[in-house]
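Build the 3D complex.
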Amino acid sequence: MALHFGLFADAHTREPVGDSIRAWMQIAVHELSVCQALLIQVAEHACKQGAAAVVRITIECGPLSGVEPTLLKDAFAIMRLGGIAAAAELVVVPTVVRIECMECGGRTETRPNKLVCAACGGFRTRVIAGGELRLRSMEMRTLEPRPNDGRTRMVSG
Amino acid sequence: MCQVCGCAIDRAGEPVVLEVLEGLLAANDRTADHNRAHFDEHGVFVVNLMSSPGAGKTALLEATIVALRHRYRIAVIEGDLETDNDAVRIRAHGVPALQITTGTACHLDANLVHQALHALPLAGIDLLFIENVGNLVCPASFDLGQHRNVTLLSVTEGDDKPAKYPVIFRASDLVILSKTDLLWLMDDFDPRRAAAALRELGRGTPLIQTASRRTPAIGPWVEWLDRELAHHRAPRHVDVVQAQHAMARSGDTRVKA
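Done.
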């Protein structure tokens, strides 16, 4: 089936939506590609769940993901139109950069261009948070009553 | 679950929440893994070359081809918004080059590389360079299926680039200071400041210097390639660089175990 996830494209054929938008907006930012991937992902989940509409999409986006939340929201405002998430709100949950020193094991909350250990000065660290770029959850409405497979929960109120 | 009687039915029209916890670029990463499997099957070592526009990626590749074409079978995938000028330059050295024009897209993605790799004689290639679109922001987010990331920083840019673009420089396995033959002219570029900014990114990424035009001086780069290629081909090797890279990105849930 052809399930619309946004302007000029559907999740089945995966025709590029970003190119049309880019041509129209005359911009080239990778947030368009990321937004396109997000909308395909959302449409696939919504389809599996038999959703009629997606009302809220919550993503986590860290400073080391290389994605700028403001630009992603701008892209989303346009690219969602005409699809199952056309009226959806995009909630971007920011995360902070945290590193763990590979020498002393110390953990530091820091900024993206200061990734050395604050405790021992060790310059080999592991990023334990701050690189997130993921779909946390989505809220949707269904057309028919459906058995709960344990993956969804009702929203109270 | 129904909140009236507790039955396992989601009522129609009522909002339900689905917990997903899935990387947004999961589809790209799957294609990148698929590309890597193709490359590994044919024993092709793949280097993704990134930099801002005009840092000298193509010039470095030309000098590299001259230095290495008698020892390795080399091919190049070129990514540009428009024109096949770079592919023409590479082909002039007798090396297969495939041009991907991205139109208005600011980076290559795994899908574009997948289309290109089926047009390349993979069985006859030892070393494949993917010259990404000149851009220090967007290419960093998209795995292509490469084995190593290399980023150029030319001395005609600012020596604080690693601090300004930490995502791409942290994703790099090697940083090349290019156009060092111009260093004597660039009195505001201090290689030590560039090295310090890179060091602040916490990966211990090596920094080497090259000059590609006139009298090419690319010795350290050729040695790095030799070493990495030998390391990659070593039987039952534990790929330390890849492991480090995975660790560096482990806070990044796009890469799922």
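Chain B has one domain: 38-233.
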